[in-house]
Amino acid sequence: MLKKLVCAAVMVAASATMSLAEGVDELNPDVAKRLYNKDMLDPMQPIGPSKWRDFKPKKGPPWKIGYASSYAGNTWRAAAMDELQKVIVPEWQKLGLLSEVVITQSNLNDSTQIQQIRQLVDQGADAIILCCSNPTALNASVKYAADKGVPVFSMTGYLTSEYAINSSVNYQVGGYEIGKAMADQLGGKGNVLVVEGIPGTSGSDSQNRGVLAGLASSPDIKVVGSVAGMWTDQVAQGEVQKWLATNPGKLDGIVVQSAAEMGVLRAVQQAGRGEIPVAIGGELGALCYWRKNPNYINASFQLWPPADDIELMWHIMMRTLQGQGPKVQSILVDPVKLTHEDLTKVMDENCNLDSAEWLKVGAKRWGYDPSYLDDFFLRPADPRAFKP
């Protein structure tokens, strides 16, 4: 009896050790320290072991994929859709791994998106990609999909469901970098306006938390206002114009979440408020303004290049469908910092100030290159070479 009890205790201890080792503990320690450090991570970001570690799909390729987008009304969504339809779909159909992509739009209505997810499952989707959604509202529909063997992938933002697979930059780290860069730009002192994205979405709230922490790294930086730009240039332009009209006091800088920097730049110019530094992300028109004005800001940070974001999510999804076994619930990447010298290598002075297109940073810098992504899977392999 004693021997049985000892064996049982050893098995329990071994099981507990294995459980503790799953997930983040399986990742490159440097990546874990930088991107999964709880002091620099949205406290709601799911980082436990993935429920899909041992998943095998109901059938082999070609697979039918659902894309349940929450919004289509900005340049970011247009660029992501362009990459999907013109680059990803033709490539993976040619590989014989994709039959079709069924696209829905919910226009920021959670109830509509919930219904669309269930419909995609019932229509035979083998996997579903979501974009930039409410972190909790869709959890029941994610469970509905999981119960039918359909994994759900949340791009550029997380869902808190234990059955979701999430991918994005670490928005809190990225927001911190942007906020601190603005504080440093202003010499640690000044009044700053903050332009959020879509409040209530995980990407916006996480990034805003980081921005405020970065600005607070300099005690003499004062946040004098906050508006919601809704990740849309026209909306941000209108909101900032209204704020400037009713707040004539000194303003030294504006931190804005892409995709809205072009709208903010126009609002400042139309208000005649001088060369107020505006944080610039990936919109090519805004980057062109910096290209032509080298001293305007010190650095730009890429937090969600749309073509790269959907490529990253697509590779994660295909690897999961192939049974490669994601280790963690959220696969995170680092923000990409650009100096003006970096910008001159990808953009010349004849650039278009009105361009609504976005910078693509590429696989190696955005994590869908095997040199980075292999580490997040138990059985990594080239997803393009898959043979059922």
Describe this protein's structure.
With 388 residues, the chain is of the alpha/beta class. It is 42% helix and 16% strand. It is built from 14 helices and eleven strands. It has helices spanning 2-21, 29-35, 75-94, 110-122, 139-147, 171-185, 202-216, 233-246, 261-271, 284-292, 306-321, 340-346, 363-366, 370-373; strands spanning 63-69, 98-105, 127-131, 152-155, 164-169, 189-196, 220-228, 253-256, 300-302, 330-333, 336-338. The strands form three sheets. A six-stranded parallel beta sheet has the order 2-1-3-4-5-10, sandwiched between helices. A three-stranded parallel beta sheet has the order 7-6-8. Helix 7 links the parallel strand 6 and strand 7. The radius of gyration is 22 Å and the shape is globular. The termini are far apart. Residues 1-20 have low confidence and may be disordered.
What attributes characterize this protein structure?
single chain; 388 residues; alpha/beta; six-stranded parallel sheet; 14 helices; 42% helix; disordered N terminus
Q: What is the averaged pLDDT score? A: 93
What are the low-pLDDT stretches, counting only 5+ consecutive residues below 50?
A: 1-20
Order of helices and strands: HHEHEHEHEEHEHEHEHHEHEEHHH
From the alpha carbons, calculate the radius of gyration and give it in angstroms.
22 Å
Tell me how many strands there are. Answer: 11
Separation, N- and C-terminal Cα atoms: 48 Å
Quaternary organisation? single chain
| Helix-strand category | alpha/beta
> Count the helices. How many?
14
The share of residues in helices is 40-55%
The main β sheet shows up as: 6 strands, parallel
- Shape, per Cα inertia axes: globular
Q: Strand sequence of the main sheet, in spatial order?
A: 2-1-3-4-5-10
- Residue fraction in strands: 15-25%
